[in-house]
Amino acid sequence: MRYLKLTVAYDGTHFVGWQIQPNGPSIQGHLQEAWQAVTGESLVMTGSGRTDSGVHAVGQVASLVTHHPLPVAAIPGALNANLPETIVVREAREMDYDFHAIRDAVAKTYRYTIQMGRRRSPFLLQRSWYVPRELDTELMSRAGQLFIGRHDFASLQSAGAPRRSTIRTILKMVCETIDVDGFPLFQVYVTGDGFLYNMVRNLVGTLMLVGRKRLLPEDIPKILAAKDRTIAGPTAPAAGLTLMHVEYQRPDQVNGV
Amino acid sequence: MRYLKLTVAYDGTHFVGWQIQPNGPSIQGHLQEAWQAVTGESLVMTGSGRTDSGVHAVGQVASLVTHHPLPVAAIPGALNANLPETIVVREAREMDYDFHAIRDAVAKTYRYTIQMGRRRSPFLLQRSWYVPRELDTELMSRAGQLFIGRHDFASLQSAGAPRRSTIRTILKMVCETIDVDGFPLFQVYVTGDGFLYNMVRNLVGTLMLVGRKRLLPEDIPKILAAKDRTIAGPTAPAAGLTLMHVEYQRPDQVNGV
To answer: Which domains does chain B have, with CATH numbers?
Structure first.
């Protein structure tokens, strides 16, 4: 029995999302079909999490269990030859334990990109949220820091996929303002031990209201304390979101053994 | 009579190029139609140069002559409301002389992007040339410097649009290697007083052969001296090319008056 870890990048624009669904092509579906084309083997790949339609990934992780002897070094090239150009297997690794992409994940990092200002870049249409105004990025960065820590994030959970517990820990939050060919971007990198449904997109929608001065940084703790989705900001569009990295630890090491 | 200068960005992927052509949508055609939709006026806009199909622009410049009183500050927004999202008027300026986008240009800067290495980024498909190998970027940068100066660039001129003189001056050449989300890029910024047909793309194709060690930096002067297109490298694909900036001087100031 072999346990494999795949690291995958994709442009999510033209997919229904990570997970196989009846209504269109998915990343998981394409990967499983590519695996079958290469090995003849039909199997299920487990993604570290479902990314929604339009959400991108630089470092999504999938796990799979196989008996097939295909050498690990040959896997990315063989799969990529059977995938659309918008899905790329960056790396395959052989794991020496029963690696599971969801169970063993200890942290995930997402990036969200807002393009702001009076003119919309023609180059970021599918990879950012265009907000056609000036935003106070200084205030947004200050507000962002107030999400760090262990909190009940019920106010940032969209309906549709409720979780048993809405308590999560945001470990790191980096906000930066950059200029790409004269178009100003505000980017947020959020690292957490787990995320509720649409949590990053709802967090960014809330930061945007701070940037527009409809909310103050001081409102963030109140919004979290309210545990009420309706008082936080809107859900930022999927196109601005990218899953950057998933961090793993062997399950027998999670508690410091 | 009003002389206007427009600065325009576009993703050239789905256009036949800057210039109006019978076989598909062009940037110039869209801009002229947008102008007509806004003002009722049918006119011809002059671009600083024709970009080919698939070539992008961050700062293409167009000139136009009009009697219409539309305030200059309202022009970008009015045109953008009548343009596809892949064409953006960034700025409109009122000129106090008979500004002409071709005649008055004194320098242009292009950027060319090569994506190299074993895995192709899913995010740069239409904005780079993918070369699926390691390239010696140190050698490429050294070779790039040897194009600087006033030379006969006949070896880098593609057939199809011969010019009276093939002598041009490359004023500046900046090569850089950057990493975008773990995908390595080699970018060249070339500034010149003018360019022959496909000159930047042929220059980059030649640099690529240096990166693959099929040519040495020392071969560059020999290639220029030969004035023979067949001994330089291949024409790099349109998708990697972006017109960044066009520099202007008033015609009565060009000779230092």
So the answer is: 2-103 (3.30.70.580), 106-247 (3.30.70.660)
Q: What is the mean pLDDT of residues A129-144?
A: 98
Instruction: Judge whether B12 and B238 are in contact, CB under 8 Å.
Output: yes
Q: What is the pLDDT of residues A38-49, one digit of tens each?
A: 999 999 999 999
Of all helices (H) and strands (E), which one includes residue A139?
A: helix A137-145
Cβ-contact A224, A151 below 8 angstroms: yes
Q: Respond yes or no: is residue A252 known to be catalytic.
A: no
Choose the closest CB to A9 out of B89, B121, B127: B121
**Closest approach of chain B CAs to the CA of A227, in angstroms?**
35
The pLDDT of residue A216 is above 90? yes
Which one is catalytic: A11, A52, A152, A193?
Answer: A52
Amino acid at A170: I
Closest CA to A101 of A42, A150, A44, A170: A44
Instruction: Give the integer Cα–Cα distance in Å for B36 and A53.
Output: 38
Q: How far is the C-alpha of A99 from the C-alpha of A249, rounded, in Å?
A: 10
Closest CA to B5 of B105, B118, B124: B105
Q: Which pLDDT belongs to residue B159?
A: 85
- pLDDT for position A255: 59
Residues from chain A contacting residue B77 (CB–CB below 8 Å): 118
Query: Mean of the per-residue pLDDT values for chain A?
Result: 96
What is chain A's Cα-based Rg? Answer: 19
At residue B160, the pLDDT reads 78
* Residue B127: closest C-alpha in chain A: A123
Contact by Cβ (8 Å): B166, B139: no
B23's tokens = 């076989």
**Which chain A residue is nearest to residue B244, measuring alpha carbons?**
A181
For A122, which of B11, B59, B181 is closest by C-beta distance? B11
Task: Nearest chain B residue to A127 by CA: give it.
Answer: B123
Residue A66 CB neighbour total at 10 angstroms: 15
